[in-house]
Amino acid sequence: MDEKLHILIVDDDIVDRMAIGRALRNTGLSISLVEATDCADAIKTLQEQSFDCAFLDYRLPDQDGLDLIRQLDELGIRVPLIVLTGQGDEQLAVEIMKAGASDYLAKSKVTPERLSQVLQNAVRLSRAERAAELANQQLRTTNEQLLRQNQELESQRQQIECQNKKLIEASKLKSQFLATISHELRTPMNAIMGFSQLLREQYPDPLTAQQLDMVSRILNNSQNLLVMLNEVLDFSKIEAGHLNLRVSDFDLVKLVQLTAEELRVLAIQKSLFLDLDIRLQNPEVHTDQDCIRRILMNLIGNGIKFTETGGVRITVQALENDTLEIGVQDTGVGIPSDYLTAIFQPFRQADQTLTRLHPGTGLGLAITKSLVEAIQGSITVDSQVNQGSTFWVQFPRRVSPP
């Protein structure tokens, strides 16, 4: 050891103190010595100063070494103690070591070499114990911090779980409300449309041109409102998990052609073209026909709705791994690039203002995405503002059982 060791010698015999001191100085170690003559003096000295080691004579005038060790322990004074015993006191020294002493040494065997060995071992052992105790204390502190953090995290998890349950319940109630109100509104809306159609056909009495125009406006707005109600009802069913696939074999090309013809009148009203580009040799598919039809209705209807000049082109083709692709391309207003990921979210439109030119619920593409995923497919979009958009729907020719 290169550093200086601070040593306390506790012995009431001055000759013994001198002998121990001389032997310690001859060890070759860097040592500073302090002496005490009894237990009281030793305790006071240990309270006032810190020592690397103390050499303790067992038989002191006021107390014995065992009592001194106990007192130091009660006072929380930690110092390596080497007990010095007389001839034949080895058994007693062992008992003292059990009480907490580091080592013992018979006074008759005190030599510089022996003292150096005993002293260095005691100091190393003490420092190792302190380092271990410090590490354990740090570990306990860390464990306590981790325990508190875990408790806080558990409390936060429980709060989040509670909030999630409330959100799920609120979402469920909202879906039920939307489904109920949409269903209830459809009945009077159908009645309004039915009577409007009768009036437009001038039943039971002829109408003036102004009256016919008013009735046509009522019918058109009722039809638009019914479309929005149906979208809300469809979305509520999908959100509530009530969308059940009805898989069957059918001709995809015929379905695309029939759906396009249903919507062609809307294109004609806006002087738009509606073209089909069929590149499919085998038109037979095994999936949900209604899902495919509704996907086509939404995408083609949107293409016509957001296009003022040009038109809409529908492409059907086969890809690798028995995958089919339907593309719906328009020459309409297009979608800003920073909004392409948001258009499939419920109630979102590229134009969110109250003065937007194209009204709607903002549910069409959200419903379409859910329908595409239901048939185990995917939907993507390419778009440029004022140049148009193309929606690509890819799905397996044969849908796997749910």
Describe the structure concisely for a colleague.
The protein has 402 residues and is an alpha/beta fold. 52% of the residues lie in helices and 19% in strands. The protein has three domains: 106 residues, Rossmann fold, CATH 3.40.50; 73 residues; 150 residues, 2-Layer Sandwich (Heat Shock Protein 90), CATH 3.30.565.10.
Secondary structure blueprint with pairings:
Blueprint: E1 5-10, H1 14-25, E2 31-36, H2 39-48, E3 53-57, H3 65-75, E4 81-85, H4 90-99, E5 103-106, H5 112-200, H6 209-239, E6 247-251, H7 252-269, E7 273-279, E8 284-288, H8 289-305, E9 311-318, E10 323-330, H9 364-374, E11 378-384, E12 388-396
Parallel strand pairs: 1-2, 1-3, 3-4, 4-5, 7-9
Antiparallel strand pairs: 6-8, 9-10, 10-12, 11-12
Helix pairs in contact: 1-5, 5-6, 6-9, 7-8, 8-9
What this model shows, in words?
With 402 residues, the chain is α/β, with parallel strands linked by helices. The chain folds into 3 domains: 5-110, Response regulator (Rossmann fold), CATH 3.40.50.2300; 167-239; 247-396, Histidine kinase-like ATPase, C-terminal domain (Heat Shock Protein 90, 2-Layer Sandwich), CATH 3.30.565. The chain is 52% helix and 19% strand. It has helices at residues 14-25, 39-48, 65-75, 90-99, 112-200, 209-239, 252-269, 289-305, 364-374, and strands at 5-10, 31-36, 53-57, 81-85, 103-106, 247-251, 273-279, 284-288, 311-318, 323-330, 378-384, 388-396. The strands form 3 sheets. A 5-stranded parallel β-sheet has the order 2-1-3-4-5, sandwiched between helices. It has a 5-stranded mixed β-sheet with strand order 7-9-10-12-11, covered by helices on one side. A hairpin with a 3-residue loop joins strand 11 and strand 12 (388-396). It is rod-shaped and about 140 Å long. Keywords: Coiled coil, Kinase, Phosphoprotein, Transferase, Two-component regulatory system. InterPro entries: CheY-like_superfamily (IPR011006), HATPase_C_sf (IPR036890), HATPase_dom (IPR003594), His_kinase_dom (IPR005467), HisK_dim/P_dom (IPR003661), HisK_dim/P_sf (IPR036097), Sig_transdc_His_kin-like_C (IPR004358), Sig_transdc_resp-reg_receiver (IPR001789). One of its GO terms (molecular function) is histidine phosphotransfer kinase activity. In the N-terminal section; belongs to the phytochrome family.
